[in-house]
């Protein structure tokens, strides 16, 4: 009997010792960080089992023991909570932090910056160039009248003008449709923050955004936005043609289905809806996506009598009240080769990049 008790005691001691050793091993595993030298982008694919995910994590040096990781997940009730996504695992992460990450559903996000004044074709190219989506799919959605109208909340053939320029966080699983909806949401939020002025009383939202897009494309210097806005408002009040080149380029882009960078003399006489040298008033819709500053300038034009402006080839303009003064400015800055030398748009962009 005594021998049986001694044997039982021995087994108990061995079991406790083994349990203690396992506890120490398990505790060390949970506090040990990865052996990664740099952040790892780890993807949990649809249909992946927890065992497969654990094996991949071990293979990529994110965890040291897949079996212990699975056991920990079992105790946490997390084996069935992993979510499809692309996750960033940092070298300093412990197994518990990694488990929280892959069950969070919060995929790693990269930034996509959409600058003020880009049109739908340029945004589509930017999206595809950065591997965030397909250009043709993006354009299909933004030019679908039904989707466009449902998304913005009123009838419109396109979402041009309503894709608010900003930096967006993109995950691998965000599709073109979701991005568009986010961009329109940001536009609507910004629109609600804008001041209500007398411009709102004589122009609807579509007209305001259309004019803002023209002001955005014509502005080289931020401080000139309100003056440029005043020129267009003054011309509209006098029923003068706007005669702005960016609208022609946009109309050509719609015809060609791609961006057009140069205006030829024949284009000035071409009859198309966006040729503001031929049509009166505003074109049918926006020609780009204006930022908040251009929208504010549209709603709050400077108090001026200017009807003309001409580029000084340095990003700023000379403003004139009458056509005679405007002609002088054109001769001085546009017809004078010395005034244009080294000051083309491309030259200015090169200098900007160098600085």
Task: Tell me what the structure shows.
The chain is mainly alpha-helical and 355 residues long. The chain folds into 4 domains: 31-107, 2-Layer Sandwich (Dna Ligase, domain 1), CATH 3.30.1490; 109-193, no CATH class; 200-299, no CATH class; 307-355. 52% of the residues lie in helices and 8% in strands. It contains 17 helices and 6 strands. The strands form 3 sheets. Strands 1-2 form a two-stranded antiparallel ribbon. α2 packs across α3 (66-75) and α10 packs across α11 (225-237). The longest helix has 30 residues, at 2-31. The N and C termini lie far apart (93 Å).
Low-confidence stretches: 5-18, 345-352
Number of helices: 17
Strand order of the largest sheet: 1-2
Number of strands: 6
Class from secondary-structure proportions:
mainly alpha
Range of helix content: 40-55%
**Element string (H = helix, E = strand):** HEHHEHEHHHEHHHHHHHEEHHH
The proportion of residues in beta strands is 5-15%
The termini sit apart by 93 Å
Q: What oligomeric state do the depicted chains represent? A: single chain
Query: What is the total domain count?
Result: 4
Key terms:
355 residues; mainly alpha; Dna Ligase, domain 1; 4 domains; two-stranded antiparallel ribbon; 52% helix; elongated
Outline of this structure?
The chain has 355 residues and is mainly alpha-helical. Helices cover 52% and strands 8% of the residues.
How are the elements arranged and paired?
Layout: H1 2-31, E1 40-44, H2 50-59, H3 66-75, E2 85-89, H4 95-102, E3 109-113, H5 120-129, H6 135-142, H7 145-152, E4 167-171, H8 176-193, H9 198-202, H10 205-218, H11 225-237, H12 245-256, H13 265-269, H14 292-299, E5 308-311, E6 317-320, H15 323-333, H16 337-340, H17 345-354
Antiparallel strand pairs: 1-2, 3-4, 5-6
Helix pairs in contact: 2-3, 5-6, 10-11, 10-14, 11-14
